[in-house]
Amino acid sequence: VSLNLAFEEAPLRGSISFISQSGTLGNYLMLLARAKGYSFRAFVSSGNQAVLEATDFLEYFGQDEGTKAIILYLEGLQDASRFAKVVRNIVPQKPILIYKAGRFDVGVRAALSHTASIAGNDRIFDSFCQQVGLIRCYDPLHTFDMAVALTTQPLPKGKRVAIISGGGGYCVTMAEAACAWGLEVPTLDYATAQKIKEILHPFAPFPLNPVDAASDVRPMTYARVIDILMGLDYIDGVFMMIPFMFEFQLRSAAAIRELVDATEIICGLPAKYGKPILGNMIPRVSVGPALDLFQKAGIPFFATQDESARAMSGLVRYAQIISLAKEVPFSAEKPRFPRADQPIAYVSRVDPVNIPERD
Amino acid sequence: VSLNLAFEEAPLRGSISFISQSGTLGNYLMLLARAKGYSFRAFVSSGNQAVLEATDFLEYFGQDEGTKAIILYLEGLQDASRFAKVVRNIVPQKPILIYKAGRFDVGVRAALSHTASIAGNDRIFDSFCQQVGLIRCYDPLHTFDMAVALTTQPLPKGKRVAIISGGGGYCVTMAEAACAWGLEVPTLDYATAQKIKEILHPFAPFPLNPVDAASDVRPMTYARVIDILMGLDYIDGVFMMIPFMFEFQLRSAAAIRELVDATEIICGLPAKYGKPILGNMIPRVSVGPALDLFQKAGIPFFATQDESARAMSGLVRYAQIISLAKEVPFSAEKPRFPRADQPIAYVSRVDPVNIPERD
Fold it and tell me: Per the CB < 8 Å rule, is B182 touching A353?
């Protein structure tokens, strides 16, 4: 059953449950997320929390088998120790992504005015997230990008990624976005690069990673190269922007057959290797059977490189949380997760307008 | 005349000219930008720059009267000193926004592979941008959000903003996004807050800034409050998310008249006060005459709070560049713009996956 306790429009079917302390904002975020093609299992607004609070809904979705990831929009917490206990129980089973107001003083002021919430000390909240294994985002929409990957793809063992595309510019910007989100893009070993080179057009650049297929439109090129990349022990996941959804791929029966064969191979790779694949594509101009096959196989496609990079970083982050949770036995007293020594998140994005005074 | 020297689809009419060193990526970015409703004057791809290079196109658009802002996607530079000279001549007249590959080593590697460009030392490039007054973005799409505001709204005198919405959650998240982009959200003085309080519903929270109008659907409320906010000497610009584009505003002739009157007032405020207004709205569910009137008046509406915040930060940044350019006489030898002492941009966004080792 899909729940919608807040607004008139029913969210699409999916396995993400979204708990928002703000009804209007929650609805707004849902509409933005749905415009991106994301689907949901449930959306509840806990409002000023006079009767039920966010933790009650969290507990419910923690036990709900149809929910694979939980997103929280919070302005403040009423009972932090109960919240922590509920979170600790859920996190080993499913990821919880959170956006919480109060990173800046004015946000604290606005939250108090809106839902009478005490947002609290943000550094303490940040440490708290680290300790209980919450994945904190600083933009509410980032939680959605990460949740989509977390509900569809296997968790990576590390943060080393490969990138393949028919477009060199995509390779460049995807590589930069991946690094900006803390991922690594290792250079391919020579033997593998040679093997891939033989699959590509002769005029394609030597494949170092990113692999620039130089406008190759043959679907099987990508299926074969991605299979090789996914099999490498130093690659934990793959980003792809591949020319599978263009009109010209539907030019003949033979072309469509190759397209479908190649798509089927790629769709099977995440399960074959236990590693995630994330795609990029241009929304609303994509056509043909590949789109539908990828969707059925649960391979998510994002519009921008920043979105897919942060989605992969969410997978990496949750994999780290899971592995720490297994190593350190449960203790209500001691922190299970280390806190960040340098909360560099506090300064991120501030620089664009801060031209320092001249000396 | 609208130029399009790269791909088949003609960009919509506007005053932003976009020069991309990558044809495929440029086309991809154009499609993403157009899906957001942005329009362009020209799009050229300079490719591997065998004949004409990016600087030639830059020089052209610098003199083109129909171009009000220029966006560059670059993977490397051939003649940096000529580029610098051209940029310095253009910047006092119109803003130049740039995304350049090479922030990370792998981006350098990918750019070399793609267009044989030497991306160069990124810290040096960053200082270079500061010196010549280029607005550098770390995500190619950010250049578009900023350019839209720069081609439609007046430049602010400072970075202090007011926020108004019918939704408290928007107030919270918009305030946080504004701070994340280096803007300030000052508390209103008591007399002004009292004056605004009398316009709002009695149950609305006391207006401190953000002004939470508590689901007020009367258009004239927003017109009157925004007029007051724009007139304050300690407010340099306004963010608004207002219920003007909903179906229920069209319920009667009287309702439509109030809607149109209020919209007309708001449309006149940027010119009246010489300050920018940026809006947020939910794409594809907005209806009615306000949408069209705002568009004709050049008041841009963005989907997310992060987009509008960075658009405002682009306005603030360019205003700072212009004012420095006026103060410091031109000199080809000495830097006209200070370089950032702490390139904190290098660590931004890296934190989400960096859980430190446990001790």
Answer: yes
| Cβ–Cβ below 8 Å for A171 and B114 | yes
pLDDT tier at B49, thresholds 50, 70, 90: low
Establish if B228 belongs to a structural domain. Answer: yes
Give B-chain residues touching A357 at CB under 8 angstroms: 338
**Confidence bin at A331 (pLDDT 50/70/90):** very low
Answer whether A24 sits within 8 Å of B166, measured CB to CB.
Answer: yes
Please give, rounded to a whole number of angstroms, the shortest distance from the CA of B212 to a CA of chain A: 7
Residues B139 and B185 in one domain: no
- Identify whether residues A139 and A234 lie together within a single domain: no
The verdict on A14 and A101 lying in the same domain is: yes
Per the structure, the complete domain to which residue B215 belongs is given by: 161-316
Say whether A317 and B353 touch across the interface (CB within 8 A): yes
Each residue of A157-197: pLDDT tens digit?
999 999 999 999 999 999 999 999 999 999 999 999 999 99
Residues A196 and A106 in one domain: no
Q: Quick one: A37 exposed, middle or buried, by C-beta within 10 A (0-12, 13-18, 19+)?
A: middle
Residues A210 and A250 in one domain: yes
| Closest in B32, B171, B352 to A304, CB measured | B32
B229 domain residue, yes or no:
yes
Residue A10 has pLDDT above 70, yes or no: no
Residue A301: phi and psi, rounded to 5, are -115, 135
DSSP B101-134: S-SSHHHHHHHHHHH------HHHHHHHHHHHT-
**Unique residue bearing structure tokens 């019918």:** B166
Find chain B residues with C-beta within 8 A of A320's C-beta: 353, 355
Written as six digits, the tokens of B132 are 């010549």
Q: Provide the edge-to-edge strand list for the sheet that holds B3-4.
A: B3-4, B40-45, B13-20, B69-74, B96-100, B135-136
Residue B350 falls within a domain, yes or no? no
3-state SS assignment for residue A239? strand
Q: Which residues of A touch B76 (CB under 8 A)?
A: none
What is the pLDDT averaged over residues B72-91? Answer: 90
Domain for residue B60, yes or no? yes
> Both B91 and B173 in a single domain?
no
What are the pLDDT digits (tens) for A94-118? 999 999 888 888 888 888 878 777 6
pLDDT at A222 over 90: yes
- Given this model, what pLDDT does residue A119 score? 67
Last residue of one domain, picked from the residues B151, B171, B192 = B151
User: Given pLDDT bands bounded at 50, 70 and 90, which one contains residue B8?
Assistant: very low
Q: Are A169 and B24 in contact (CB under 8 A)?
A: yes
CB contact under 8 A, A167 and B22: yes
The answer to whether the complex's ipTM is over 0.90 is no
Question: Could you tell me which chain A residue has the CA closest to the CA of B328?
Answer: A358
Report the CATH number that the domain containing residue B79 is assigned in CATH.
3.40.50.261
- What's the mean pLDDT when you consider all of chain A? 85
Closest CA–CA distance from residue B164 to any residue of chain A (Å): 11
Contact B137 A282 (CB under 8 A): no
Number of domains in chain A: 2
Q: Say yes or no: A103 and A227 in one domain.
A: no
Question: Which of B130, B151, B172 marks a domain boundary?
Answer: B151
| pLDDT value for A51 | 61
Closest approach of chain A CAs to the CA of B313, in angstroms? 6
Yes or no, beta carbons of A310 and B28 under 8 Å apart: no
Q: Measure CB to CB from residue A176 to each of B107, B114, B351 and give the nearest one.
A: B107
Residue ranges in chain A assigned as alpha helix (H):
23-35, 54-63, 80-90, 105-115, 122-132, 140-150, 168-180, 190-199, 219-231, 253-273, 289-297, 305-327
The answer to whether residues A142 and A172 belong to one domain is: no
Nearest to A354 among B23, B101, B182 (CB): B182
